[in-house]
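Here is my example:
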Amino acid sequence: MSPEEEVVALLKESGANIALTLPCDRVKALHYLLTREFMHVPLTREEEGVGIAAGAALAGLKPVMLVQTSGVGNMLNALASLTKLYGLPLFLLISWRGIYREDIVAQKPMGKYVPELLRALEVEFVEVEDRDDLSGIAGVASVAFDANRVTAALLSPRIWEGSEFRMPSRGSAERTLSARTFEGDEAIARYTRFEILAAIKDELSGKVVVCNLGVPSRELYHVLHQRSNFYMLGSMGMATPIGLGIALGTQKEVVVIDGDGSLLMNAGCLATVAELSPRNLTILAMDNAAYGSTGNQPSATLRSADLAMLARAMGIENTSRASVPEEVVHAMHSGRAPRFVHVVVKPGNARVGNIPLSPEEIRRNVEGFLRDED
């Protein structure tokens, strides 16, 4: 039995019967099994999951939620003022990033702080350092469901080393987004995000570009590195808010390269963009219907959510859809900003290296560009 299958067996033994998940690269196989073995709720944000789990618990279900350490901070208040306040059960499986063989610097702070945060919230937890420690999961999970408490297991990436489990490959799903709000507006994914970025790099040159975290930032660095690029290393869901803040403080053109998973996690920011309406902001929503940096788990845009409709409903009047580079370039120059361009792309990541810049270097580069007079 693989360690992932052992975790699933221990969860079933404890009584868990519904899994709420956000993906993490280190627990791809566990995420896959949870979606197959339990009633499954794919989440857009951790705080949302706390609310859904509370309702499920009220209905008699026993929820387990899979998150990573950086996401724990997104749900602290909800855990305290909802789950703990009402005495509801919730078991947290936390992918413990930032401690063991971590090469993403933005993961390290929360990896260090999460154990202390759990203690501060009086959440009983176990640290699962390797495969031999897995049996401890059953005990803390049972405490959650038997005593109506929040408990947790911190899962080190070391556990999965040498795992025998192999996930089936996921092919790219064919999809066509038809005109639900705009007549004659149809987009069929033909290009990957990397191919779009490579084709529009001249349009990005000389502008402030805020790029979504993970592979998108690495692809942008490979296609067009410039000191005006703000490469996000963490804080999923914050690309558009960061771009909005920059746009409010400069006359320079600002372009945000966001993603479907990130926008779904913080969709309310689009209403703020519409409310403030900066005339120098363009949002390119690269929608591959997947959490591309963590294993291509499908996002809600694959079957149901429509980002163009969402942006229009939030009040961004200049909203368009594109699927080929020429359409993207045209949309970036059409009408009055703020602009929201829903760029429908195929799943897939380019094989590019990490960004050889520290957070401080990225910040200084962008600050220097913003302070330069044209």
